[in-house]
Write a structure and sequence with these properties.
The complex is a heterodimer of chains A (380) and B (1059). Chain A is α/β, with parallel strands linked by helices and 380 residues long. In chain A, strand 13, helix 4 and strand 14 form a beta-alpha-beta unit. In chain A, helix 4 crosses helix 6 and helix 8 packs antiparallel against helix 9. Chain B is of the alpha/beta class. Chain B has a 6-stranded antiparallel β-sheet with strand order 2-1-4-5-6-7, with helices on one face. The two termini of chain B are 23 Å apart. Classes of the chains: A alpha/beta (380), B alpha/beta (1059). At the A-B interface, helix 1, helix 7, helix 8 and helix 9 of A face helix 4, helix 6, helix 7, helix 8 and helix 21 of B.
């Protein structure tokens, strides 16, 4: 007997990318990537072939899922039949009467848990998948710790969405919290978890394999690096879990010190160097720091345009300051010197970051105006 | 700071060159291409380095052009300078990129002080900025005064050009960047970003409009989504209903099966009953067999005829009643038609209505605009009150005459000129005393032997007379001899000619020739007599000449003795030659004459000083009185100029207030005019509108619209009229429809009447055909025959019914089938009971029929629900397709919001920068103006020898100069100033600017590059004397290639440093 399972979670279809400072064209592109990764997972599960595709919640991002996405998913799952696809709705896509889970007519090979209590689905002759669904953003009753398994000789695996207490990132809210040791009754071979977006294995005293697959495609710059789904093989003797790289693109966040750059080419080279893996798309957020010569600082938009095509998305966060000797200028007995001195004084005593940035920008613009320069205007 | 020494290891043309520079004014002289600019550049680079920026090691172009031309130990050198406190600093530099090196020594304390100064990221050390208090740009552009800048000065608007350059230097230490130009650029930037909502081509209004559109789209999409959610709920309800209907259809199908089983049992019972009834019917046939031939086929016809008559009568009655009802309706509708209003024609044209509406709109807009203007007028009135109050609070500047500014400036100027004149006279007197004393001392110290020598070497006073007498005697002797020779020749010629004429007269016997002979003879005799007289005089002359010669010989002997004495004295005095001696003597003589002249000049200076002092006192008294009147007393020893500047500032503020007052008045006048115009226009429009509205109301009344008076607003009345008119037209149409219906109904009634008559005729024909008189008799006779026929038909019908019931089988087989069905199951019984309970029918046939009917209804419900559900699904899909996903809208909205925030931030930064620049520039200019006025005036007076000694800079640093010809300040003297004077004004201002900049700390050395292009000799000398004075506080290194400048420098006591 050998059971093959493909485990993924936290895809967040139709997620919004409004926050994060991305250009508006980024959202559609990324949403398509999320669809692509679901397609890839289903294709892989079909061809491997897996005995079941397990989705441990947060398949959708919110209640804004479009009909088009629901149709896409329905057709995709339909095309994968008879592959059983088992879904445990999570805190972002709870099973509610108005949810897409409830309002879409899913093909018969799709099994969706619909209550906040353990339910079992028998697949084939030997596999039983246990799971439950969030019934709202906060589950009304946490079923972790209440799972009981019959001694029926079948392979029992569990599929759930929740926050394992030992892995909770600092400052995050607990959704369906549980302790892995308490949530793994004897006889359970595999606990497929969703909620944490990073690949994680949790050791428990029993012989249950407990894994968070993480999100198969990143959603922001707090999810950098390579992403995975899990291919799990269960036989009589053991359970083998293999993380398989899933993401077609990776998020990268880095910082470039511009102080030593002698021309814009140095910056271009530094930006290009951020993309280390040519086989994957790169979504980069690069914070530019240090001093920058006015010659290229005012043409950052052009520099970005020149290298943007080499990235799936490129965000330059310009935190450079103009390459000026403000303290030296402030010593001059000219009105320019007096202007810079005044601005230096207010900047030195201003602790509100926005006001400080405002004064720094005013100083920069005033100096440029004295020199007869007109820096470019955003959106002009 | 004072630059002392330059040691150039290698820099441009200089290899191993040392230059020592003294304090004060230094003139570095050399022809072109000798390296003056290189020296200037070297000083600047030694102090501030060669980097473009303090953040990066990027070099200026000069880094390459100033490399040593020939092999040199290194590219760099040493610079030694001394600070004002006496500390000597030595700077070592190597400029080469690879071996770049800077070291700063304190020579006074013999320590390396490099580490004490800030080190920039470009590896430069900020010692020069720390010592001088100015950056590289200020040093290069302000402390360096190059000739090229002056060459660019035009003469058309020379003072304007100068002002631009001075402002640029004061504002940014550059040639062009002024606070005004910076403010203009910032203002342009603010305009380019866009402030007002209507400027859709500007990025900020455009982004805001886009954000608003996206907000609206977002709200609409949310509403749309909520509506879709409702529809989705409805769809779910339908789906549930469909499921229920489908289940019910299934249940009824089961019930129907059970019912069929039950029906077969019932059918068997019915078949058995039918078989019994057939037997009874056959017996009746046999009983009425006698009436078998009665023509019963006509009964139906007769009955139909009778029924038709009855029906026609009923129809006729109903048609008549309906017709009456329609008559009543039509009459009622006709009575309500019109309502007194003319519904055929529009009382008011659409054009009139549009015209009135547009005019009303215009009136509303003008009213709004008028309110705005009146509010502006009120604001202006308050501003005017404030300005008036400010003016009332101001000092009474009328005491200063029509032009207080000029008056005050003149006061300060005249006082300063008097003071300068007094000081100059005293200084000159002091200088003259010193000079006289020095000259006297020199004279006294002069070797007395020289005087002896002079006295000894003096010629004897009579020697000249003797020599002159000797010469005169010699000349007289020579002249006498020449005269005697001429007289002798004349006597001979006269005698000869007399003889000749006499001989000729005798020969020719011509007496007329006697007269010339006589005359010639007389001439010869006269000449002889004269010769004789001169011969006597010649002896006397010879005697005098002998005496003179003797005197001369005596004199020569005395001279020889004197020469020996002089030679002895000269040797003793160390004078080598006579020429030298004579020169010394001449110098001595000139010195004495100079002393006399200086003494006279000293007397004149003393008198001049006394006059100036008296004038100062008079002016001071005058100023005290004047300033006391203005409530601005001069305190203690306060200089009059300071009080004047104070008062001048107050007056300028007062002037500004007056200008503000005048502008506010002008604005109020303009607003008043606008308000008047608006009121007139509004009045005209209202009048026109009133007339049109009266016409409109009259038109409504004429059209019969009686409610017109109930509406205060004519446009409301018009709208009410249009509504009433529409209702009247609708009633008319309805009445017409009733009329048409009535006509139709009338025609139907006539047709019913006709049909009744036909039916009655047909019935009568049937009765006659049967030979009976009445319908009752016909019925009695037909009853028996009908019983026979009914029995036969019943029998036949029952047999058919039985056959139908058995559906092709026979009774026996059917009995076996029922036996095979067996009894009904519990579930079937339960379903049947439920259905019976639900339907309320217990009869099996009825139940089966009802169940079939219910099944059909359930099936129809399912079909309908499926159809509705499908339609709703399509609707939902279509509705979803018309809406953009919320995510897309949200992302675009967020992007637009970020852009708006960014642009608003930029606009705020621009405004802040502009406000600070405006404030600091005003402050800076206001502080610079009075000090530069004072210093530059003094400098210009010194350069021009007092021809132009007053420059005034206003708070905007506008330059004006008092023109001697008009004695007034002028800021556009244009053709009245020579190019040389313009150059001198510029130089005075540049020097003043450096002085003002120096006041903040260390004195700044100045590097001047031939700034005397258009100077005459006199002013050149004056300028150099001024520079020498200025250089006592700020070292000046003057680079020149001109001989006259070097020579003039020598004359003012500055020895040029030759390159």
């Amino acid at each position: 007997m050998s059971i093959r399972l493909l485990h993924t979670a936290d895809i967040h279809l139709d997620a919004s990318f409004a926050a994060g400072g991305y250009p508006s064209s980024f959202g559609p592109q990324r949403r398509q990537r999320l669809r692509d990764v679901v397609t890839a997972a289903v294709t892989r599960a079909t061809k491997w072939p897996a005995d079941a595709l397990l989705i441990a919640g947060d398949l959708f991002d919110a209640d804004r899922v479009t009909q088009d996405t629901a149709d896409f998913l329905r057709r995709l799952f339909e095309s994968a039949a008879p592959l059983p696809i088992v879904i445990a709705p999570g805190n972002h896509d709870p099973f509610t009467p108005n949810s897409r889970y409830a309002t879409t007519t899913w093909p018969t090979n799709v099994h969706i848990f619909d209550r906040p209590e353990w339910q079992a689905i028998e697949i084939g002759d030997s596999l039983t998948v246990h799971g439950f669904a969030f019934d709202g953003p906060d589950i009304s009753s946490n079923p972790f710790g209440t799972l009981t398994l019959p001694e029926d000789g079948r392979v029992h695996v569990a599929l759930a969405h929740g926050a394992e207490r030992g892995c909770l990132p600092e400052g995050q809210k607990l959704y369906a919290p549980f302790s892995a040791a308490e949530a793994t009754p004897i006889g359970l071979r595999y606990l497929a978890l969703g909620h944490y977006h990073t690949l994680k294995q949790i050791e428990v005293p029993s012989n249950t394999e407990v894994w968070y697959s993480g999100a198969p495609e990143g959603h922001g710059f707090d999810e950098t690096g390579i992403r995975y789904w899990l291919e799990t093989e269960i036989d009589d003797a053991r359970t083998r879990v293999t993380p398989v790289e899933s993401a077609k693109s990776v998020y990268t966040r880095t910082q470039i010190e511009c102080g030593e750059f002698k021309s814009s080419q140095d910056l271009v080279d530094a930006i290009r160097a951020v993309r280390t893996d040519a086989t994957r798309g790169c979504i980069a957020k690069i914070v530019l720091r240090g001093t920058a010569a006015a010659a290229w600082r005012n043409s950052l938009a052009n520099i970005r345009d020149s290298v943007e095509s080499e990235f799936e998305a490129l965000i330059l966060d310009d935190q450079t300051v103009a390459e000026e000797g403000y303290d030296t200028l402030a010593q001059d007995p000219t009105s320019l010197g007096l202007f810079v001195r005044r601005m230096n004084d207010v900047i030195a005593t201003e602790f509100d970051p926005r006001q400080r940035r405002l004064y720094e920008r005013a100083r920069e613009l005033g100096l440029a105006a004295y020199r007869g320069e007109q820096p470019p205007i955003a959106g002009a | 700071m004072r630059i002392d020494q330059l040691h150039i290891d290698g820099y441009g043309r200089f290899i191993g060159k040392n230059v020592t520079i003294g304090p004060g004014l230094q003139i570095v002289y050399g022809p072109n291409e000798r390296g003056k600019s290189t020296l200037r550049s070297f000083i600047g680079h030694m102090l501030y380095g060669q980097k473009r920026s303090i953040h990066q090691r990027r070099y200026e172009d000069d880094h390459e052009t100033r490399r040593p031309w020939k092999p040199a130990p290194r590219y760099g050198g040493r610079l030694i300078y001394q600070l004002d406190d006496g500390t000597a600093i030595e700077v070592h530099r190597v400029f080469d990129r690879k071996d770049e090196f800077i070291q700063v020594f304190d020579r006074t304390n013999a320590t390396d002080i490099t580490a004490k100064f800030e080190q920039y990221r470009n590896r430069e050390i900020g010692f020069a900025a720390a010592h001088l208090g100015i950056g590289k740009t200020v040093f290069e552009n302000v402390a360096n005064i190059g000739h090229w800048t002056l060459a660019n000065l035009g003469s058309e608007d020379a003072l304007g050009d100068i002002r631009e350059r001075i402002v640029a230097l004061a504002d940014s230490a550059s040639e062009e960047g002024t606070a005004e130009s910076a403010l203009k650029l910032l203002n342009d930037r603010a305009l380019n970003i866009g402030r007002r909502a209507g400027q859709m081509k500007r990025p900020l209004p455009s982004a805001k409009a886009r954000l608003e559109a996206l907000d609206a789209e977002w709200a609409a999409a949310c509403d749309h989504l909520a509506a879709l959610q409702d529809r989705e709920t409805e769809r779910q309800r339908l789906a549930e209903a469909l499921a229920r209907a489908t289940a019910r259809r299934k249940l009824i199908a089961v019930a129907l099966g059970a019912a069929a089983k039950q029906t077969r049992v019932i059918k068997l019972r019915e078949a058995e009953r039918l078989a019994d009834e057939i037997r009874v019917a056959e017996q009746a046939v046999f009983e009425y067999r006698r009436a078998a031939d009665f023509p019963l086929e006509e009964v139906a016809e007769a009955q139909r005829a009778a029924n038709a008559v009855a029906a026609s009568r009923t129809h006729l009655t109903r048609a008549t009643e309906e017709l009456q009802s329609l008559h009543a309706q039509y009459n009622e509708a006709a009575a309500r038609l019109g309502g007194g209003i003319d519904d055929e024609e529009e009382a008011v044209s659409e054009a009139l209505e549009q015209e009135v509406s547009e005019r009303q709109g215009k009136i509303d807009r003008l009213t709004e605009k008028l309110a705005q203007y009146e509010a502006d007028f009120e604001t202006a009135r308050r501003d005017l009150d404030s300005a008036t109050q400010a003016q009332n609070d101001a000092k009474d500047f009328d005491a200063l005459g029509p032009d207080p500014s000029t008056r005050l400036t003149e006061l300060a100027s005249s006082f300063r000129v008097a003071e300068q004149s007094h000081a100059a006279s005293l200084a000159r007197a002091s200088q003259l005393r010193v000079t006289i004393n020095e000259m006297r001392a020199d004279e006294q110290q002069h070797d007395s032997r020289l005087e002896d020598l002079a006295s000894t070497s003096q010629d004897h006073p009579e020697a000249a007379e003797i020599a002159e007498a000797a010469t005169r005697t010699e000349h007289a002797l020579m002249n006498r001899r020449r005269l005697m020779r001429s007289l002798f020749a004349g006597a001979l010629i006269g005698c000869g000619l007399t003889a000749a004429f006499t001989a000729l007269a005798l020969t020719l016997e011509n007496p007329s020739l006697i007269l010339p002979a006589v005359l010639m003879g007389l001439g010869g005799v006269g000449a002889g007599l004269c010769w004789t007289y001169n011969f006597a005089l010649l002896a006397r002359d010879r005697e005098a000449a002998a005496i003179a010669a003797e005197a001369q010989l005596e004199l020569e002997a005395a001279a020889s003795q004197q020469a020996e004495a002089v030679e002895a004295l000269r040797v003793a005095a160390g004078i080598e030659s006579d020429e030298q001696l004579q020169a010394h003597l001449r110098d001595l003589q000139r010195a004495r004459e100079t002393i006399v002249e200086r003494e006279r000049e000293l007397d004149e200076c003393n008198r001049s000083a006394q006059r100036a002092e008296a004038e100062i006192e008079a002016l001071r008294a005058q100023h005290h009185d004047l300033f006391a009147k203005l409530d601005e007393p001069i305190t203690g020893n306060e200089p009059t100029s300071a009080a004047v500047h104070r008062l001048l500032a107050a007056y300028q503020a007062h002037s500004d207030a007056q200008i503000a007052h005048r502008r506010t008045q002008e604005r109020m006048t303009a607003l008043q005019a606008d308000i008047g115009k608006l009121r007139l226009e509004l009045k005209a429009l209202k009048s026109e509108q009133s007339a049109k509205l009266v016409d409109l109301r009259e038109a409504l009344r004429n059209a019969g619209f009686g409610d017109e008076a109930r509406h205060f607003d004519a446009l409301d009345a018009l709208r009410a009229y249009r509504k009433t008119l529409a209702e009247a037209r609708e009633r008319k149409v309805r009445a017409q429809a009733i009329g048409e219906h009535r006509a139709t109904k009338e025609q139907q009634r006539e047709e019913a009447q006709s049909l009744l008559e036909q039916d009655e005729a047909a019935l009568q024909a049937k009765l006659e055909q049967a030979g009976v008189a009445s319908l009752e008799e016909w019925e009695e006779r037909a009853k028996e025959a009908k019983a026979y026929r009914d029995a036969r038909q019943t029998s036949q019908r029952l047999q058919d019914k039985l056959a139908d019931l058995l559906a092709g089988t026979d009774l026996e087989k059917f009995r076996r089938q029922v036996a095979d069905d067996g009894p009904m199951s519990e579930e079937e019984s339960s379903i049947i009971e439920e259905q019976i309970a639900a339907i309320g029918i217990e009869d099996e046939d009825d139940l089966a029929a009802e169940l079939r009917s219910e099944h059909d209804r359930a099936a129809a419900d399912v079909d309908e629900l499926q159809s509705t559900h499908h339609t709703l699904q399509l609707e939902l899909a279509a509705a979803a397709a018309t809406m953009r996903p919320l995510n897309e809208i949200e992302e675009e909205r967020e992007e637009a919001r970020r852009l708006v925030a960014e642009l608003e931030f930029e606009l705020e930064a621009v405004s802040h920068a502009a406000a600070v620049i405006d404030e600091v520039a005003r402050d800076r200019h206001a502080r610079l103006a009075p000090r530069m006025t004072e210093i530059a005036g003094e400098y210009l007076g010194a350069i021009t020898g007092g021809a132009y000694n007053e420059i005034m800079l206003n708070r905007e640093l506008g330059v004006s100069v008092r023109v001697p010809e008009t004695a007034r300040f002028a800021n556009e003297p244009r053709q009245m100033l020579s190019k040389g004077t313009v150059d001198q004004i510029y130089l005075a201002l540049r020097l003043a600017l450096v002085r003002v900049f120096s006041n903040s700390g260390e004195s700044i050395p100045m590097l001047l590059d031939d700034p005397f292009a258009n100077y005459d000799d006199h002013r050149l000398r004056n300028a150099l004397e001024l520079l020498r004075e200025v250089a006592k506080t700020n070292q000046i290194i003057l680079f020149t290639c001109r001989d006259d400048v070097a020579k003039a420098g020598t004359e003012v006591g500055v020895e040029p440093i030759a390159l």
